[in-house]
Specification:
- With 374 residues, the chain is mainly alpha-helical.
- The protein has a domain at 2-212.
- Helix content is 46%, strand content 2%.
- It has 16 helices and two strands.
- The protein has helices spanning 2-21, 33-36, 53-56, 58-71, 84-100, 114-117, 122-125, 148-159, 170-184, 197-200, 217-264, 282-286, 288-294, 297-300, 302-306, 365-368, and strands at residues 318-321, 327-330.
- Strands 1-2 form a two-stranded antiparallel ribbon.
- Helix 4 (58-71) runs antiparallel to helix 5 (84-100), helix 5 (84-100) crosses helix 9 and helix 8 packs antiparallel against helix 9 (170-184).
- The longest helix is centred in the middle third of the chain and has 48 residues, at 217-264.
- The chain crosses the membrane at residues 227-253.
Length: 374
């Protein structure tokens, strides 16, 4: 009986010591088991809450080293469906809940207003925290209380604690931001977590999770095509604009030239029928007498040009006998030689009709008396 009681007491003490020595949980057969040993379960004994403790205490260094290995591992257990990345994120959620809400166990009592600012997230972060499995690692992401505005407000509060080194808890804000990223963009199987651990365990606040940091080759090609399209569209639009401007300038100049050509042309003859300047040259107005002679019917008439002149026709005087019996020619006029119309002479304004010299006929014998026939 006593032996049995001692055996039960011994097993109880061993179990209690085992619970106290339990470390961070990881995937069975994971290459991170040595860095997270013992790896049966995550407990509050393996958690620290202030930033400086992750660099100055054994517990803090072990936690950072284990989670760093898990987030950079691509190992997955085919039987249980668990992966190292999922357990690494679970350990971050466990640390945040323990330090901020004291659940499942109180780790430290740090005085700041951030637990109040993060109160709206408590229900979601504690959801199934004590019963993790390969089937419920992300189910808590779908709870209504895990809202982006609550996460942003909570992270901003813990980012302000960096002003005091002894109570700085910026790591808590980065733990929360990493959890939000994985809820929005779940890490694919056999892929590393896209946010490097060196950024998570840093006093520089992570940016909000607005874009997926992991993309497949198809998405990369699509992104490259979209980028090329974005670059090409403005260039194509500029070329089209230049072509339209050149075409518009061409038609504008063409229209102006047509208008100028119409202005240089005279009006319709029917509209200017009473305008004598159309048919009367300038030189004809300066020399009306010569113009009248050049355009007279005598010049342009074929009979006047080509028919022979009579011996005593126009241009000669007429006979007159004085009282003393002497005859003479009087009343003769100047003789104008006929002008043959030609393009070079008939229409030249410079040509003037000059009078021809007159040679009188020889005097008649016998003092102007006609010889009587015998």
């Amino acid at each position: 009986m006593d032996f049995a009681l001692r055996s039960v007491a011994g097993w109880a003490v061993f179990a209690l010591l085992g619970q106290l020595s339990l470390g961070l949980r990881t995937t069975p057969g994971s290459p991170c088991e040595n860095r997270c040993r013992p790896s049966n379960n995550t407990t509050a004994a393996e958690i620290v809450c202030q930033d400086y403790e992750y660099n100055t205490t054994d517990v803090g260094r072990k936690f950072e080293d284990c989670v760093e290995c898990q987030l950079q591992s691509t190992f997955e257990d085919d039987i249980s469906g668990q992966s190292d990345v999922e357990w690494g994120l679970y350990n971050l959620r466990y640390a945040f809940s323990s330090c901020v809400y004291g659940f499942p166990e109180q780790v430290a009592n740090i005085s700041n207003p951030c637990p109040v600012a993060c109160g709206g997230l408590e229900t979601s972060l504690e959801y199934e925290l004590e019963d993790p499995s390969g089937l419920n690692f992300e189910t808590w992401c779908g709870t209504a209380s895990f809202a982006d505005n609550e996460i942003t407000e909570c992270g901003a509060c813990y980012n302000l604690t960096a002003e005091r080194a002894d109570t700085s808890q910026v790591y808590m804000a980065n733990f929360l931001e990493s959890l939000r990223y994985n809820c929005h963009f779940k890490t694919p199987t056999e892929e590393e977590f896209p946010i490097t651990p060196s950024r998570i365990f840093s006093e520089s606040l992570l940016p909000s999770s607005t874009s997926n940091l992991i993309s497949s080759s198809d998405d990369s090609d699509s992104g490259t095509d979209n980028l090329a399209l974005i670059i090409a569209m403005p260039i194509l639009g500029f070329v089209i604009l230049l072509c339209l401007l050149a075409l518009g300038c061409f038609f504008f100049i063409r229209s102006r030239r047509k208008k100028a050509r119409r202005l240089r042309q005279p009006g319709h003859l029917h509209a200017r029928w009473n305008d004598t300047s159309i048919s009367t040259p300038q030189w004809a107005m300066e020399y009306p007498a010569q113009a009248q002679g050049m355009y007279s019917p005598a010049i342009y008439s074929p009979q006047a040009v080509y028919s022979p002149q009579p011996e005593y026709g126009p241009g000669f005087g007429f006979g007159f006998v004085d009282t003393d019996g002497r005859g003479s020619e009087i009343g003769y006029s100047k003789v104008h030689e006929p002008v043959i119309a030609s393009p070079s002479t008939a229409y030249s304004p410079e040509e003037k009709i000059m009078p021809q010299p007159y040679f009188p006929p020889p005097p008649l014998p016998n003092n102007g008396k006609m010889k009587q026939p015998e």
